[in-house]
Design goal:
- The structure is a single chain.
- Helices cover about 20% and strands about 45% of the residues.
- By secondary structure, it is of the alpha+beta class.
- It is globular and about 45 Å long.
Length: about 170
């Protein structure tokens, strides 16, 4: 976990998207990514995890508009979507308040919340961070699941998400 702290980028994971520029995910040292697709035209889900340990899993799903004329997401709308997800997570959470935090990067903005599962079932993760990012026409949903110290995974995960870019 000392590797994660330095935030060094080991490689770029290129996620091909149909008829549009690829999504580039900068992978920290010690992480690997797998791109899963049901079919080529549907949005893929990218699963990121540690090469060595099983203490976290990050899911990233880029979704593009089905209509060409759809307006880009506003920060307000994105924040409202994340706030409703936080409301749904609240009954299971240790925390009584789940504040919505903002994320920004080059050409992107996003929002997220973090919660601790009150009673994780065997094999489930205790820490949850979930949110959405708007990058160009993409709406990128993400979920960070971890055990142990949440900040140890959330720090590099959020840094990676802020560094997402298009090809």
């Amino acid at each position: 976990s000392g590797l994660l702290a330095c935030g060094a980028i080991a490689a770029d994971l290129r996620v091909a998207l149909p008829e549009r520029p690829a999504l580039i995910i900068p992978l920290p040292v010690g992480w690997r990514g797998q791109v899963r697709r049901a079919t080529p035209e549907l949005p893929p889900t990218v699963k990121l995890s540690s090469i060595t340990e099983k203490h976290f899993e990050i899911l990233v799903t880029p979704i593009w508009p089905m209509q060409a004329d759809r307006k880009p997401l506003t920060p307000e709308f994105l924040r409202a979507m994340v706030a409703s997800a936080a409301q749904r997570a609240k009954p299971q959470a240790v925390e009584t308040d789940l504040p919505i935090r903002e994320l920004s990067g080059q050409g992107l903005f996003g929002a997220y919340f973090s919660a601790t599962d009150r009673a994780p079932k065997p094999g489930e993760y205790r820490n949850l961070t979930q949110g959405m990012i708007s990058l160009g026409e993409l709406e990128i949903g993400f979920t960070v699941l971890s055990n142990g110290e949440a900040a140890a995974v959330n720090g590099p995960a959020l840094h990676m998400l802020q560094s997402l870019r298009r090809e």
